[in-house]
Amino acid sequence: MTADDPSNDEPAAGRSGEPRGAAFYGRRKGKKLRTAQAAHLAQDLPRLAIALDDIGEAPLTALFAGPVRAVRLEIGFGGGEHLLAEARRHPDIGYIGAEAFLNGIAKATARVSEEGLANVRLYGDDVVPLLDRLPGGSLERIDLLYPDPWPKRRHWKRRFVRGDNIDRFARLLAPGGHFRFATDIEHYAAWTLRLLLADPRFEWTAARADDWRLPWEGWPGTRYEAKALREGRRPGYYEFQRR
To answer: What are the boundaries of the region Disordered (predicted)?
Structure first.
């Protein structure tokens, strides 16, 4: 796989010093929520939602109702299939799910509440301010699964995998922590590999082709992935370890 140099498309810094590309791009709301989903949002989201002011000097594990030994973050969890499957498999790990799309937040809120999962918290806004607020070295893993590939060259600066966000990942991951990335778009995979392989703070964990061609252990699949497979696109699963 080959890719054009992503550094040529880095966004310029705005007046605040934050790269303009850090702004959120995408829809905030889709079809009308079901009655039960709207009820869960009103009744349950206030106790599940993380506000930036909730993050202070206390350990990040204190955000969860039950005891957890580590914290993981999933960025853009969509319908929540993977987030919830991981939370069920690992009740001793806290999961923060970040999703700016209201319908995704509604689905996850309903499922977390109905199943009584004590190890999930939700963040329903642009994730960059959250990344900047979280303490350094506080995350065991960051998952970014099927992000918008922004296929047109003029939109590449909107891709979430870029230099400034890789810096954020490096700051937040504890030594030995992992960044996992899945995509069905070959160019985005090549783009990501080019950036991460050139970064001395990360090491690609793949030892053979099946390590990125096959899903990770316990992978539940997602609706987006199913659509990609139906349309003949082969997903890749890439994992990088923080040195």
So the answer is: 1-28
